[in-house]
Design brief:
With about 350 residues, the protein is an alpha+beta fold. It is about 20% helix and about 30% strand. The protein has a four-stranded antiparallel sheet with strand order 3-5-13-12, with no helix packed on it. A four-stranded antiparallel sheet has the order 7-8-6-11, covered by helices on one side.
Length: about 350
Amino acid sequence: NEDMCALLSGPEHGSLSCTGNGIRDNCTVSCQDGYKYLGAVTKVMCQDSLLWTHQSYNNSQGSFEACAQTHSPSAQALSAQVSLDQDYCRTAQEQSAVVTAFETYIKSAPAAVPCITASKCTVQSTSCSNNGGSSEINFQLALSGDLTAYESLLQSSNTIKDLVESSQMSFEVTTSKKRATTMFSAKAGSYSGTIVTTCDAAYTLIDNTCITCPAGRYKTSSACTACGVGSYSTTASSTSCTQCATGLTTYGTGSTSSEHCRNLCKVPGVESGTSSPPVGFIVNPDTTVTTACNTGFTLNTGQLEWVCGTGTAPTCKEDGDSGTDAGTVVAIVVPIVIIILLAGIAIIFFLKKRNRNNYG
């Protein structure tokens, strides 16, 4: 159908839900449980141009990114810091007193830190230091048992931040041998926290999730990158991509087999015009390309419909222009003018000579 975008297919270990493939219809991609979608765009729409919104020079077929298998991390913890309003933690004794009081508070019912109350995390590596008149506490909430409870850590971080911002984080510290106590309060705006995830060496960390980098991509310690146009990888956890043989290329990025390397055609540019499929798209050689000259321009050479692999791209000229460029005009006109001038000089010379002979 001429008013339809191409039919799309979902990724392996994923599915595609579409309202149709007409103009303004949309498709949404998702992955099976235990898999993570590696693309930034999960919903696409069929445009007036009859191209989906995710189709591009590097994805002329409208393929979707891969679904990668997820794995439990080897460790996951919230690493956080908060500043207190008291000038303290100058000695080992003071530091120990603050650490003990803070850990007692953070584990208490009033604090209500989700991962602690649910017994999903433990408080670790707590320390206190003096920083220019205030005391800084550094601590970790490390997941224990269920190492996939990322949301629990995120909720816990938000809870602690709310306690600090609302000035509700206060606790008593024993500050003398006589058991005198001082109330310590967190300074508003002083909280910072980061969730740190550690993966086994075989996996790659993406958005705090450990994944197996799938075929069609290559892994480093911190990234899982799609193979570029004209290359492929056939196995998961590849550390490099293989280039297609000379003269062959792929429709886009993320190819998983040498069979995707083909003799394809890249739609060439048309000056003062547009093409469908668009300029730069990689298509089958027998694809018919339709060219339209811009407003104020008309066809100069070639045909408006031509075959990408065998035809020659047309050219456009300004409407009303003969299509002959200025250089060609000069090359033709100047020699003619010179010939006419020389002929005129020769005629004048001949007439003068004849007149002298007549009167001689």
